[in-house]
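Notebook entry, structure prediction.
Reason for the run: the old model in the group folder had no record of what sequence produced it. Starting over properly, with the input documented here first.
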Amino acid sequence: MRRARELTLTPRQYALVAYCALGAFTLIVLSGAAVRLTGSGLGCPRWPRCYGKVYPPLNTHALIEFSNRVVTVPVTIAAFAAFLLAFRRRPYRRDLMRLGALLPLGVLAQAVLGGLTVRGALDYGWVMAHFALSMLILVAAVALAWRATYEPDSRARTEERALAVAARLAVALGALAIFAGTAATAAGPHAGGAPGQRINRLGFDGRATMDFVIHRHGEIAFLFGLAVLAVWWLARRSSSANPVLTRASTAACVLVALQGLVGLDQYETHLPTELVWVHVSLAALTWVAVLWTACAAGRLQPRALADEGEIREDPQQRRKYVLSTR
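New structure, fully documented this time:
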């Protein structure tokens, strides 16, 4: 007990904990996608037990679904570690504690939502919400890892307004593209159930729903790709852009390009399971890369301070400012 009270972490050690949590939450998205794409969503038709037992029967779908539940154990450990160890970081930072608290809360929310998804027989609304919540938890995990990497006020606010705005626009378009992607999956053949299981799919326009949603997803993804490319171009042109931003935006561009190629291929080959899994995996990695890019782009300098800087540097602007204040 005394050793636990004496345990302290350096900023570098806590940053490592935050990175581990980020990696864990990214990996569980991939395992969850595997459950859906193998038709194992109802492999265990009850929650939290599997067929009324604490262990699954020797059934492929049950084993896959139960394995995904088991993966949540290390993820939960990583989440609670990020929260509890924030109290032992020295110097203590309240912002890290608050962000860390979002991770175990996210795990609990996912557990409840996962149970509702199973009880709702994989209704597309529950499944879409389940994936959307995963993306929101990744936002908290990225923010925690980023803040744990830097001390408060160690990075000056950016004066590159176009770059910062473009990075935030890319995040917004990325979120919209992910939502459209979940709708495309909800209307497609990979509803999460095994062959013969009746699953309520998205079908507001009958059989034409999937085609409509896929095309809208493609259009939004195209705009998202342009926004990411704009961020990369602005970062390369900026004289004050830091190397972290350049690397993050480059990684985001590469991932978006791969997403486009995989998306076109899976559309032409009629959505094979393996390619859809790769597409979902790349989506999670792209989301993390774009969020990291937005963090690296920095916080905007308040407009008043930016205007004061221009006034100090430009004699003509300074004269106009003096005359206007008389």
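Summary: The longest helix spans residues 209-237.
The old model has been moved to the deprecated folder.
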